[in-house]
Amino acid sequence: MMTRALTLFVAATLLAGCVHTAQKQDAQPGIGSASYRTAEGTGLAHYKLAIGQIAMGATLEVHEPPVYPASVLARCPPQIELPARVIVGTQGNVDEVRMNAPDTQQPFAESVRAAVQHWRYTPLTITRWAADADGTSHPVDSEARPFSLDYVFTFHCEHGRTSVSSGPDATAR
Predict the structure, then answer these.
(1) How many structural domains is the chain composed of?
(2) pTM score > 0.90 for this model?
(3) Do 117 and 94 touch, CB atoms closer than 8 A?
(4) Which of the four pLDDT bands, split at 50, 70 and 90, describes residue 69?
(5) Is 41 buried (19+), middle (13-18) or exposed (0-12) by CB count in 10 A?
(6) Mind listing the UniProt keywords for this protein, alphabetically (predicted)?
(7) In this structure, is residue 123 part of a structural domain?
């Protein structure tokens, strides 16, 4: 009887030791991704071109997406869509990024600003063309103009795993 009691005591002590030495593992931070798309139906005003004028450029050349903010990965909030207007100067550099982000989305807004400030566009150029007496067209003058484009930036986080959607019901993220 004493041997059995001693065995139970030793087993209980060992199990208790395991409980005290086991470390609680913190929840894994989420895995975040960021993407963007041009916004549709924004009602932006366009340059009015006269007869003989053409507009060229305003093409995005250098564009890395924003980085998911590391400061919010641990809490892994639901998907966030953040609209932004990008104002581009005559040289094709981003002059300003306009957003109306609530306080809870400020880390995402900062990430958008940090990335978009490095984007580069071909300048928007408006060229006026005319024809010679023999009908040959040639440019008369050209002017670079500032422009703006609207985008929607999407930030998505999943705890500890990534997912891929495909098929007819899949939505881009």
Answers:
(1) 1
(2) no
(3) yes
(4) very high
(5) exposed
(6) Signal
(7) yes
Domain at 64, CATH number? 3.30.2420.10
Question: How high is the pLDDT of residue 22?
Answer: 32
Residue 131 lies in a domain: yes
Range of the domain at 104: 27-159
In a domain, 58, yes or no: yes
Bridge partners, residue 62, by sequence: 120
**Phi–psi pair at 62, nearest 5 degrees:** -115, 120
Nearest by Cα to 160 from 30, 25, 26, 27: 30
Spatial CA neighbour of 63 closest among 41, 35, 87: 35
Handedness of CA 102, 108, 111, 115 (dihedral sign): negative
Q: Give the pLDDT confidence score for residue 10 in this predicted structure.
A: 40
Element of type H or E holding 155: strand 147-159
For residue 57, the tally of other CB atoms under 10 A from its CB is 17
Which residue is listed with tokens 């005591």? 9
Residue 128 lies in a domain: yes
Amino acid, single-letter form, for residue 164: V
Six token digits for residue 171: 């939505």
What's the pLDDT tens digit per position in 87-101? 999 999 999 999 998
